[in-house]
Design a protein that fits this description.
six-stranded mixed sheet; alpha/beta; about 160 residues
């Protein structure tokens, strides 16, 4: 009985040590990931990229970064892709200011920005770039047929309940 209690004490002590070690490793990992989109030796700044991008977070970019290059590197989804069932729009918003007060300085539909060539602002240190995707279901033949199917199922249910 004494040997089994020693094994239990040793195994629980080992569990505490392992738990403390894994907790220390978890704390040592960086909480945010900084994406470096700059060439060596060029002046850089930090911006925040949020929303519908493949790698949201803090981005280290060159001070004269081209907005379109940044969007391409961020891999904005649904640009240039078409789907017959849904209509996708991607909007871009740029916020600038201090922590206590940020103002939206730019807002545009990305497709309009690309096709009309609207001027977009030069990014500055601490800017927040937010991309949002708006999806709308297209109204087409499949929508009509699914509505007809649901209505006919409801009518058949009412007829069967009436026959009971």
């Amino acid at each position: 009985m004494i040997a089994s209690s020693r094994v239990l004490i040793k195994s629980s002590w080992l569990g505490v040590v392992l738990l403390a070690f894994t907790s220390t490793l978890a704390l040592a990992q960086p909480e945010e990931r900084i994406v470096d989109f700059s060439r060596p030796g060029r002046p850089t700044m930090m911006i925040y990229l949020w929303g519908a991008v493949s790698s949201p977070g803090i981005w280290k970019v060159e001070t004269d970064v081209d907005f379109l290059e940044l969007l391409t590197a961020a891999q904005v989804p649904n640009i240039g892709q078409s789907n017959s069932q849904t209509k996708e729009k991607v909007f871009i918003h740029v916020y600038r200011g201090t922590v206590s007060r940020r103002n939206e300085i730019y807002s545009a539909d990305v497709k309009k920005m690309l096709s009309e060539g609207t001027a977009y602002p030069a990014l500055q240190e601490g800017d927040i770039v937010y991309l949002e995707t708006e999806s709308k279901q297209r109204f087409g033949l499949s929508t009509i047929l699914s509505g007809i199917g649901a209505a006919s199922a409801l009518v058949l249910l009412i007829i069967r309940i009436g026959n009971i």
